[in-house]
Amino acid sequence: PTAYRDILRVKSQGFLRQEYIANTGTWRNVEQNISSKDVFGGFDELSVSTWDTINGIWETVYKTAYTTSYNSNNLPVERIVSTTYNGNTFTSKTDYDYFTNQKVKQADMSFKNGSTFVLSAKVYFLFDANGTRYRDSVALFNPNRSVITNYTYDNNGNCTHALERNVPVYFGTDTVTENKYEYYSNGKLKRLTFYYGSASLPWVEREVTEYTYTQNGEIDKVYEWSRRPQEGDSLKLYYVFSHYYTNNRLSSMSMHSLANGSELFLDSIVLNYLPNGQYDTAQVYRAGTTPTTWESTNSQRIIFTPNSTTGINKPAATVGSLKAYPK
Q: Staple partner for 199: which of 92, 172, 219, 239, CB 3.0–4.6 Å?
């Protein structure tokens, strides 16, 4: 499923998606994803291209190039991100400063204007005496204002709330967003609720994501609720993602839609592995002839480019925490 691109990218250097052409018995290119990484495991390119069947060439949908400088502790001190989309290129730069305990202290964010970078925001990270992050303070320029995010935690150190506010009031409201986190007794994330409100919108939950787990602690199902103004603006369950395991290793993933109260099968991916545990290939099964069936033979396949051995476990640490909470 498209929603799993990030999972596939972190564990590979990219992949090629192809579709089966029945009348010729051949596979044709559809999409190429590149997720190459630097020697520290951080991404240095993320891009998606689609195959032009008429001219027989790849056409870039978007491409993001990362140029990162690291300090002696392998922490990023400067990251330049350049994204090309629809013929336009946007470039930003983030400079990082750290406390002596290696926790991030400040991030200065700039956007490129012509040949120079113009400072647009400063982000300050505050930690308590126990090293727990409790506040982010973002100073924005043009116009000058601040966005402050406060974090609260339970007795187990799990973040329970992240409340973002405008100072002073901006767009008629002081509260921008709130994330509420709920946990199972074993500390695993159970539910993430996203709240949003403005001068014209009531302050209600806009999105809810709920997780269940297997007996071995792996993700089992992910449920996604959201509000859509065009469908009455009530909270509805729209998607269910299911995960299946063989010998404690992810073997397949599927995506179901529940639009308009009816269940529809969308995509299912069956993964194959190399002997070293990296992704090799995958079969993609689309919806069958009825809403709750899969096609009997996969109409698409994925061919992976394995990660290099250097930095394979570092992307989550250097690109940004994959945890839902900031600690």
A: 172
